[in-house]
Amino acid sequence: MARVRKVELTSEEIKAQITSIEEQITKLTEDIKGLRVQKKNLSKDLVAAEKKEAAVKEEQSMKDLAKLLREKGLSVEDVRNMLDKESK
Asked: Among candidates 26, 27, 23, 30, which has minimal Cα distance to 38?
């Protein structure tokens, strides 16, 4: 048996609701596009920040190594010679 839908609204009210929903969909679609652009920009910022942090960390490591070599009275050539001896 066919089921009959019980409609309590007028056709104008239904059309108004449909129009309202379409407007909401359009607005939310624009919001989603904006959020996607924002996410893309943040992803680029994240990559740049990680590269910068890695460079700063590398620079600090090199400074620490240079300080240690000075404290121990070693030159770069001394370290190379030690490494060459160990690799043989």
From this structure: 30
